[in-house]
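Sequence in, structure out. Go.
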Amino acid sequence: MKIHYFKSHHNPKLRLAIFPLLRPFLKNNPIADSKRKAIYHISEKEVEFVEHIEDAEICILTMSWNYYLDQNFFELAVAYVKKANLHGKKVWTWMSGDFGIPLQLKGDYVVFRSSGLKSQLSSQHLGMPVFIKDPLQEIYDSSKFSLPTYGARPIVGFCGQASAGFSQCLKEIVLIIRHILKFKLGILQTTPQPIQSTSLVRSKILNSIEKDEGVKSNFIQRKKYRAGIASSKERLTHKTTQAFFDNMLASHYILCVRGGGNFSVRFYETLAMGRIPVFVNTDCLLPLEDEIDWKKNCVWVEFEERKQIAKKVIAFHKSHTKESLFQLMKENREIWERTMRIGLFFRNIKIND
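Output:
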């Protein structure tokens, strides 16, 4: 694929704001192509970076829309989209983080994003996975996929922040209200979230599952996100990370509910571990929705149906034999391996659609 991007837009100090497909090539320290393929599943042989827009098959906005807004470079981003469009080229762009920004720009471009309220977004916004490292390799130093012990009673796992404590709930709600006020006053331009405590939502859902004797709950509820471990490097080796993935291995299903942004990293971790998400849909945008029947591969629960979540898990479990349930777990792992890595995901995107 022939790709054009503006090199002058690249900010190496804010690597997480770089368009994901460019990250394997815009490294602060160059890496061998074999390592690039192992980590990102794309080779330098598959990509040609061109100097002129007219020579490109794909035009990519170098950084996220959030970055251009935060750095007061928004007009630079708009100008690039318009210039590419003048040459008859569609532009791939993306939104980073928990909060998107409302785009009033008319043009031929798409916005890849993990967060956002699907019903409020145009068809130009496409779901994108949260790109994670393979937990089997990172945590267990293995690529061997394992299946849990089967039982007629479904085992639902969860390890993470879920608190019904007053102070935590109040803190989350106050932060959202403050965001809304700043948004209305024009101080912030990122789209605010609905007023609710997601920690409380998760806690209530877990409690409702625990009360149903038809489900075996396997829960580790923590008061803080990632058990309070702030550093991403420290999380990888901390004992709580091992507990997180061990919890998945011992379960058939994993509860996946949104966090601060309207998406769930746990959803992609569950797929990577070959387990079945119990996905609470809060108007989410999922990747490759035209190609993957997510309702087949998950226990799909609309947010308004969350009080019936245990019954839905039981019905889903009963609809499968041991063989078909394990086959579905293998399919979920294969879906993640085949489509949820940076290079493989963007290879599935049709350039001219």
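Check: Residues 166-184 form the longest helix (19 residues). The chain has two domains: 2-113, 135-337.
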